Amino acid sequence: MRTTALAGVGIVAATALALTGCSAGDSSGDADGPVTITYTNFISNGGNEENLQAIVDAFEEENPDVTVEVTTLPYADYGTALQTDLAAGTVSDVFDIEYANFAQYQSNGVLAELDPEDPGAYRQSVLEAYQADGTQYALPSSFSTVVLFYNSDLFEAAGVETPTADWTWADEQAAAEQLTDEGAGVWGDHQNVSFYEFYKVLAQNGGEFLDEDGTAVAFNSPEGVEAAEWLVGKSGTVMPTIEQGQGTPDNDTNLFLDGKLAMLHTGIWLFGAFADVPFGWDIAVEPGNAQQASALFSNAVGVSAGSEHQEAAAAFAEFLTSSDVMVQTRLDAGWELPATSDEAALNSYLTLGNPENRQAVFDSLENVALPPVVAEGQQEMQDIMTEELVEAQAGRKTVEEALDSAEDRINAAIGG
Amino acid sequence: MTALIGEAAADVGADAGPPASRTGPPRSPGRRARRARYTLTVLAFLLPSAVPLLLFVLGPMVAAAWISLTEWNLLAPAEWVGLENYANLLTDPETADVFLHTLYYIVGYLPLVYVGGLAIALALNTALRGRTVLRGVYFLPVITSWIVVALVWRWLLNPSNGVVNSVLAWFGIDGPGWWTDPAWAMPSIILASAWKDLGFVMVILLAGLQAIDPELLDAARVDGAGWWRRLFSVTLPLLSPATFFVIVISLINGFQVFDQVYAMTGGGPGGATQVVVQQIYDLTFRYGRAGEASALSWLLFVVILAVTVLQIRGQRKWVNYG
Question: Are A369 and A293 spatial neighbours (Cβ–Cβ below 8 Å)?
Fold first, then answer.
């Protein structure tokens, strides 16, 4: 059954490809002869480079006159590199952006207007996130959520019930404490102490990060204090301390891969990385407190307003974000989800297995918490929040002191 | 380093110039032609360092001066704000913080690297076996990339499983949280920096030591001066030009400390190692506040210039050129 369904999708994909491919090839080819466009990305870094190349190859096959030069950078360096390239006027024709930074780039006029040939191919809510005043300025390449990963072998060995969608913070904490075995080097839980986790647990606790105008913070509330305590309290009890390596790159995923971590809050983009582990694992929607709230991340591609090959660049951007080749490549690889309106294709994702409970990914979409976005000082806001929370995690400040300080500093940075 | 070589070349040019003019105005056309050729030769020698110096040092400095008078987020066109960035910097408590952190670094680093470099130079200036190899070994860190060195030191000083704390544990000592503890983060950076730069200081001081006439030391010995007496009364005074050079260069480099901070702590934990250049970097590339960053760059330039001028003035009192 599954094979046939997949084959069917494949045939539809191939047909659609041939159709869209021809039109794109005609329009960009005849006008200005062979062109080379550049694309700089972070989305394929760390394991999906070949998958991205497969999509690029498919585009080039359909558009023989267009060559795409791909540059892949690590996520950690990407923002700096992009900003430098934009300042120097050396930015690629097509480049990745993430939702949190879209507003800033759009308002500074570095993104070209886009007019996708088939807007219906996109998941509308995600497509609209990249519009300003009704105009499209970027096309969503993916979306993803953060879920609770768990090592079912460790749960079984400790005789603890595995997480379900009904879990609350209290259930998670009880399980984490039972599963932590410092002698064996096994930790019960891991959740980063950072801006991105905090805004979400705040939403799970019924709090707000920004006030109604979006010009001042609102997190310094009883809900905020409780949320911050929930986050920083894990360190040293059910999660390693900073001295023990918590917070250094890949520390959490390596612990999980080594079978030394029972629960891990992280993104579904790691499905591929965990595919071959020698233990059982699955996922569940993140537990909430007052309510459930899952972090939704989305990446998109923009075309540089200064690109000399607008037409070819826009055609590539659309192919990269909506072609069936892309949809199928992403789903097969367990990469982040394509922002497609093709529910049938998404449904095939549910049956891929490993993890079994892929339904949790869609369930997590029902209650999403988008990161707070400000017009000015976005990065400073994020950095200050993380820094103050880490001060509380390390015990150098109380949670209340950290939130007081974060409130003052962030309000100053975002001009509130 | 390019800048250094450039300055050295400029100095050589300046020194070589006067003798020609000191001979008085040229009297014959032949002499004039020779002088023009001489000038051209000097210019030709200066060109390879002057061109990059103009393009990559002077050019950016002028550009930064202009940017410092604007508000520029790297994306939209810059907007003229006059001296507002400087006014903001001088009233922002963070400016004092980053200069204090930089000063802390210098105060810890300079004595350590000088005394360490001197000790090694003295040891390698003796008839020690294998000294040629050792000189090379001590110089190796100098030519190694800071990123590599910083990663190795981060690993050595890892609070939970690093070599240093593991060795300390054998002696029952509970090692500190090196780069995770704000109180220890700067000492960690100072330690790594001094280790890396020891070789540079050693080479300069070794050259100075070898220029000291052994007869002076022999005479002091005959007069009954012990090792320490000879060090303080003969060697160090005669070494003072080399010492002066080392201190000037190390202070300039100290004010500009960045690579090791960026790679080891990124300014953390909790901003404890946020030095001036790290702040300039963050303001520009993380926060898109290039105007303020450029103003801070010029503030740093003025501070370094003032400190260097004071040192050059002060050298008459203690530097002995024999």
Answer: yes
Tell whether ipTM is more than 0.85.
no
CATH architecture group of domain B85-318: Orthogonal Bundle (1.10)
Of A83, A380, A383, the CB nearest to B74: A83
Q: Which of B161, B287, B292 to mutate to test the interface with A (most CBs of A within 10 A)?
A: B287
* Contact between residue A286 and residue A201 where contact means Cβ atoms under 8 Å apart: no
- For tokens 């040891």, the residue is B123
Does A265 lie in the same domain as A400? yes
CB of A267 closer than 8 Å to CB of A297: yes
Q: Are strands A35-41 and A66-72 parallel, antiparallel or unpaired?
A: parallel
Query: Are A266 and A383 part of one and the same domain?
Result: yes
Beta carbons of A406 and A397 less than 8 angstroms apart: no
Chain center to CA of B83? 30
Check A109 against B182: CB less than 8 A apart.
Answer: no
Tokens of A345: 């294709």
Angstrom distance (rounded) from CA A149 to CA B121: 57
Closest CA to A241 of A388, A393, A391: A393
pLDDT for A365: 85
Question: Nearest CB to A383: which of B74, B285, B286?
Answer: B286
Joined together, the tokens standing for residue B11 give 């100095």
Q: How confident is residue B313, by pLDDT bands cut at 50, 70 and 90?
A: very high
Both A280 and A384 in a single domain?
yes
Q: What is the pLDDT of residue A321?
A: 95
Mean pLDDT, to the nearest integer, of B101-106? 97
Say yes or no to pLDDT of A12 above 70.
no
| Nearest CA-CA distance, residue A216 and chain B, Å | 18
First and final C-alpha spacing in chain A: 58
What is the phi/psi pair of residue B242, to 5°?
Answer: -65, -40
